[in-house]
């Protein structure tokens, strides 16, 4: 109970109400004391009215008048003359005098609490103004025993009333908090627990329904987070399944490609000069495919192995990648242009960089083919002492908004309806492995440009 939100709210409410009542209690007690003494002054004035006419009053009557007024004697000042109107024996000397004609709030409060703190009865003198112009001044002496008892009784009644008010207020607030705060929070907690048990079930994603602004915002944020997490988990599962399938395919494909390598040796012995010219390219393509299959089997994960860095001529690597894409172009009219300077030598893994260029060139070729028009693809490079910048530009239609939003995410960043988005994801991962970046520099109606930034310094090859 005490550790729950509603329980602590109940206790804090009761404490705050009691504090508020204490702040009210302090001036209330001071006001009660002042009114008690003013009442005694008024009684004493009424008791002395019969003597002001000049008539004789017996001692028994004076005693009765003083007893009813609960004072020992009464002094009136009229026309600058003080007159002892009623008197009786005083049991003890007067210890203090209090002037109630114009007291300050601080004086009244301090006098009241000093009286509460002093349990021993005393005889005090009280000075005030007579009511209804009954003179200039009235003085009385009285015992403080009845005054203190009345103040204690009043204070106890105030405290009990404060306690009842605090309990009722806290109880009402407890019910309100339970209905409007605790229950909605518990519903959110139950939704989170249900979702945690099976985060891939989209039916368990919370549906925002609270009419409280803060809770509504929390539910909407949780809804968005759960949807993103569910999509990410499904994507991870898809990638895991794909990884298992790729491993199996790579195993069989490696065996097929190894057999195909054995037949390429015979092609080099052909008398046809065109066949002999194409045979080395076929050998290189088969070798790369075998290496790729072996890497997939050896690594066994969705990540790529660390690059094996060596210095390579970038223009030759780009020319080889362009030549492979030119063969795949078929009857479509696409112009390829290699603007990489012939003297650019880059520390990189040639196989991985070739895959990056091939993925970008293939995407550009497919984008132009989808338009049904002719187009062009250009690869350029510029270098300085620190960085080599490679740009792959095309004159295609540009990437759609959805593809740009999830550009390098597998299965979400495909540029076409049948694309998977794996090509750009793989290319970005390979470039990151080299310590570089792959970004979309431009994409509009005039075409698309991807920018590769690779370190150009002399650094040790990764293990």
TrEMBL record:
Domain Histidine kinase intervals: 248-458
Transmembrane domains' residue ranges: 9-30, 158-182
Subcellular location: Membrane
Catalytic activity field: ATP + protein L-histidine = ADP + protein N-phospho-L-histidine
Pfam families assigned: HATPase_c, HisKA
EC number: 2.7.13.3
Keywords linked to the UniProt accession: Coiled coil, Kinase, Membrane, Phosphoprotein, Transferase, Transmembrane, Transmembrane helix
Single annotated GO MF: kinase activity
InterPro entries: HATPase_C_sf, HATPase_dom, His_kinase_dom, HisK_dim/P_dom, HisK_dim/P_sf, Sig_transdc_His_kin-like_C, TCS_sensor_his_kinase
Cross-referenced CDD domains: HATPase (cd00075), HisKA (cd00082)
Coiled-coil zones: 215-242
Keyword Phosphoprotein in record: yes
Record bears the keyword DNA-binding: no
Superkingdom, natural source: Bacteria
EC category: transferase
Protein name: histidine kinase
Species: Roseovarius ramblicola
């Amino acid at each position: 109970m005490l550790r729950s939100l509603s329980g602590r709210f109940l206790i804090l409410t009761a404490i705050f109400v009691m504090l508020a009542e204490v702040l009210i209690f302090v001036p209330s007690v001071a006001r009660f004391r002042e009114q008690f003494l003013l009442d005694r002054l008024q009684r004493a004035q009424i008791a002395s009215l019969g003597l002001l006419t000049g008539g004789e009053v017996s001692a028994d009557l004076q005693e009765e008048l003083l007893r009813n007024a609960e004072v020992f004697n009464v002094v009136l000042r009229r026309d600058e003359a003080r007159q002892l109107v009623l008197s009786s024996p005083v049991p003890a000397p007067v210890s203090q005098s209090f002037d109630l004609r114009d007291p300050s709030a601080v004086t009244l409060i301090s006098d009241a609490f000093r009286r509460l703190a002093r349990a021993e009865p005393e005889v005090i003198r009280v000075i005030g103004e007579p009511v209804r112009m009954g003179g200039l001044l009235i003085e009385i002496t009285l015992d403080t025993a009845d005054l203190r008892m009345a103040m204690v009784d009043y204070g106890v009644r105030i405290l009990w009333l404060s306690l009842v008010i605090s309990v009722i207020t806290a109880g009402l607030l407890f019910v309100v908090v339970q209905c409007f705060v605790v229950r909605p929070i518990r519903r959110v907690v139950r939704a989170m627990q249900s979702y945690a048990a099976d985060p891939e079930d989209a039916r368990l994603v919370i549906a925002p329904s609270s009419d409280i602004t803060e809770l509504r915002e929390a539910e909407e944020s949780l809804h968005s987070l759960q949807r993103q997490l569910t999509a990410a988990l499904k994507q991870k599962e898809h990638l895991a399944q794909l990884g298992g399938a790729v491993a199996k395919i790579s195993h069989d494909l490696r065996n097929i490609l190894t057999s195909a390598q054995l037949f390429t040796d015979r092609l080099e012995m052909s008398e046809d000069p065109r066949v002999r010219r194409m045979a080395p390219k076929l050998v290189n393509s088969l070798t790369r495919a075998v290496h790729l299959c072996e890497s997939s089997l050896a690594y066994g994960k969705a990540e790529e192995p660390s690059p094996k860095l060596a210095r390579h001529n970038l223009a030759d690597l780009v020319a080889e990648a362009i030549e492979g894409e030119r063969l795949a172009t078929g009857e479509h009219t696409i112009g390829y242009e290699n603007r990489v300077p012939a003297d650019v030598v880059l520390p990189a893994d040639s196989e991985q960089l070739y895959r990056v260029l091939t993925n970008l060139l293939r995407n550009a070729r497919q984008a132009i083919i989808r338009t049904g028009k002719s187009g062009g693809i250009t690869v350029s490079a510029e270098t300085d002492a620190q960085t080599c910048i490679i740009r792959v530009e095309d004159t295609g239609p540009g990437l759609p908004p959805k593809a740009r939003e999830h550009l390098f995410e597998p299965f979400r960043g495909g540029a076409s309806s049948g694309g998977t988005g794996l090509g750009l994801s793989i290319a970005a991962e390979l470039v990151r492995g080299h310590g570089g970046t792959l970004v979309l520099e431009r994409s509009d109606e005039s075409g698309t440009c991807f920018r590769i930034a690779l370190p150009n310094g002399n650094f040790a090859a990764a293990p």
